[in-house]
Bifunctional diguanylate cyclase/phosphodiesterase (Kineococcus mangrovi), 278 residues
Amino acid sequence: AKDAGRGRVEVYDDDLRQTLAAQAALEDGLRRALAEDELVLHYQPVTDLRTGLVGSVEALVRWQKPGEGLVPPGVFIPVAENSDLICDLGRWALRTSLAQLAQFDASGGPGAGLRVAVNVSGRHLRSPRLVDDVRCALEASGTAPDRLALEITETVMVEDDAAWARLEELRAIGVQIAIDDFGTGYTSFGQLARVPVDVLKIDRSFVDSEDPRTVELVRLVVGAARSFGLRVVAEGVEQVSQVRALQAVGCDTVQGYYFSRPVAADRLPAAVTGCHEV
Ligand code: C2E
Ligand code: CA
Ligand code: CA
Ligand code: CA
């Protein structure tokens, strides 16, 4: 029994070692990917249902791994979040998306004048460098701060006073703040009145549900957001029935495969034009 017990511990150690080795390899690969320009941003349109116009896009990172095609962020973001690598990635995403925005402006095409939303991880938000990173990226691109929104998951912002202060500092510069995946974390209805944010992104799981109580909940959230002066974006809209349901509860801004998948920068002008049918 003693031997068996020790055996189990060794198996466990082996598993753990393998997991850690795999993570370390992924981390090394990602560090190299950043240095060698293997990361790309795709952009997903956010459509205003009242006008049919695309006012902004969300920047979503992909890893163009040589010989392997596009690796989705779900595979490498969680690993990047274990170290300051996620801050390097965040800095890169801010610089790249804002530089892209300036290029869209200069082109004068359908991408001109768009705003961009960039995902910021909790670790970067807790880092004292975030505000400088944002400032530098804005300066380098020459874009106005109100063209940029930072998407932050709600869990992070309620638990950390320094992070909260940082959000207020960013808003003072003129940058917009969005709560991402709203409804999956811990922001209470009461906190909605106080959080330093401009936009609330309703998580896909709510858009997906046909349960009448969930629909009612979305109606309440949209109403509360409006009275607190927040804008609302519904995420993960895939079907016209969802568009109609969201319109019925007063949610006017939507994002999802129904309108467009995230696309590479060169395909964005066409995607923006194609979103007009609502
Ligand atoms: P997220 O911020 O919630 O992004 C929305 C995700 O939903 C994206 O997945 C998008 O492709 C997907 N999506 C959009 N419309 C639909 C739809 O109609 N149906 C379905 N089923 N999915 C839809 P993606 O690009 O794989 O990104 C996954 C997550 O990775 C993001 O979730 C975000 O948390 C993280 N992420 C992506 N890019 C970055 C980044 O640059 N920095 C950081 N820190 N995180 C990022
Ligand atoms: Ca997001
Ligand atoms: Ca989201
Ligand atoms: Ca998410």
Notes: The longest strand covers residues 54-65. The chain has a mean pLDDT of 91. The two ends are 67 Å apart (CA to CA).
